[in-house]
Amino acid sequence: METGRGLFLRAAAAAAAWLCFVGAASASAPPQRYTPDWPSLDARPLPGWFDAAKVGVFVHWGVFSVPAWGSEWFWWHWRGEKQPDFDRFVQARFPPGTSYADFAPRFTAHDFQPLQWARLFQQAGARYVVLTTKHHEGFTNWGSNVSWNWNSVDTGPHRDLVGELGDALRERNIHYGLYHSLFEWFNPLYLLDKKNGFKSQFFVYGKTLPELYELVLRYKPDLIWSDGDWEAPDTYWNSTSFLAWLYNDSPVKDTVVVNDRWGTNCSCHHGGFYNCQDKYEPGTLPDHKWEMCSSIDRRSWGYRSNMQINELMDESSIIQELVQTVSYGGNYLLNVGPTKEGVIAPVFQERLLALGKWLGINGEAIYESKPWRIQKENCTCSTWYTSKGETVYAIFLTWPESSVLILPSPVSSATTKVTMLGFSEPLKWQVAPDKGLKIMLPSAVPSLLPLQHGWTLKLVGVA
């Protein structure tokens, strides 16, 4: 990687070119609809496709996939925190004097087949996919004009990974999201700005903003998943100016969705949908659209060669997280970490396909759904609700004893009808003692039903 004075001069030149571009665009642009301030930006309606999609796949892939140990924060743990076990790992596995930059040529993506990925994600039931274009290590998965030799075109795969996956996903009508880290752990320009108390913006104008504009103009993403925001305020990142351009003048101004990680104190307060924090669970129905991102590997977002089966989410846990998230009005973004060769491990594929199988039967209660007046039934069987218009869906995660399910909240009427998704015959029901519904489930034991980790009742004609 280029460092020192050469990096500074290149960044200064990039910043000057970028300012000229923005100035020229502003001179010819019509009056903006959204102004670069949070009250205006936060008033923008969220494009409807995102709420309807409900289910996405997150992909963490980069140079960190080469050591594939610890987590995707390998470089920081090794050289930032200087944890001894990371140093011992490198000494045992790699030649003496190995630096993090030496991992890049080993990030080969030899077996990366984007069409196969797209097919897998579609079979998993994903309506959108979010790829890491750049993590905190600074390596870009496309030939960025401001990353020079630290990108996937100039080294490693010698391929435009961002572009190839985008083309494959769009062939299958899957929305494409781009994860991008605002900051980089060891970039000299960022460290200089940090030393200056973020009063200077060498890194922002030389690296972050050019990358964001380039990603939007080149790949026209449906979603920008920002991260790496927690050390500096949004004024340092010029977040509101970028978002005003994105909403007013970009080629995706009417369709693009963004999250809330645009500077300190933005999470759960400003932006498009809210992430709030990794693996966020509100516990109640929020008044703002949100997303829960989770990872099949509970200990890492990137691939780990030493992961153990008991550290991975099983099918039941994944479905439970999905159902709870959607019942509270959120989207569910489930992460996998491919290997350095571009292989999605079979155990990850198995989990994704199991999710897709479940959605193949129960997706009617998930996609395009809305929260009902009650989100969770306070009784046994762990029952959650979603709705579509006048139709209510009750998703129960535990099969009740005697195959009789009590739902206290729905109020029956003369037109009430109860069916189970994936089961052809209407179900018998009666008014429960507390005026809810007492439903007689199919007599077959749960193990003989198509799925064993959550079932959905479709309730028509209930109040």
Written account of the structure:
With 463 residues, the chain is of the alpha/beta class. The protein has 13 helices and 14 strands. The chain has two domains: 4-365, TIM Barrel, CATH 3.20.20.80; 383-460, Immunoglobulin-like (Sandwich). Strands 5-4-3-2-1-7-6 form a seven-stranded parallel sheet. A four-stranded antiparallel sheet has the order 8-9-14-11. Helix 1 (4-28) crosses helix 9 (202-219), helix 6 (114-123) crosses helix 7 (161-171) and helix 6 (114-123) crosses helix 13 (346-362). Residues 27-364 form the Glycoside hydrolase family 29 N-terminal domain. It catalyses: a neolactoside IV(2)-alpha-Fuc-nLc4Cer(d18:0) + H2O = a neolactoside nLc4Cer(d18:0) + L-fucose; an alpha-L-fucoside + H2O = L-fucose + an alcohol; a neolactoside IV(2)-alpha-Fuc-nLc4Cer(d18:1(4E)) + H2O = a neolactoside nLc4Cer(d18:1(4E)) + L-fucose. Pfam families: Alpha_L_fucos, Fucosidase_C. It is an enzyme of class 3 (hydrolase).
Radius of gyration, in angstroms, nearest whole number: 24 Å
Report the CATH superfamily of the largest domain: Glycosidases
Helical residue percent band: 25-40%
Beta content: 15-25%
The ordered string of helix (H) and strand (E) elements is HHHEHHHEHEHHEHHEEHEHEEEEEEE
| Form type | globular
- The overall average pLDDT, rounded, is 92
Biggest sheet record: 7 strands, parallel
Number of helices: 13
Give the strand order, joined by hyphens, for the main sheet. Answer: 5-4-3-2-1-7-6
Detail the poorly predicted runs. Answer: 1-5, 23-29
From the N-terminal CA to the C-terminal CA, the straight-line distance is 63 Å
CATH arch. level architecture of the largest domain: Alpha-Beta Barrel
CATH topology of the largest domain: TIM Barrel
Family: Belongs to the glycosyl hydrolase 29 family.
Pfam family, one: Alpha_L_fucos
Keywords: Glycoprotein, Glycosidase, Hydrolase, Lipid metabolism, Lysosome, Signal
Function: Alpha-L-fucosidase is responsible for hydrolyzing the alpha-1,6-linked fucose joined to the reducing-end N-acetylglucosamine of the carbohydrate moieties of glycoproteins.
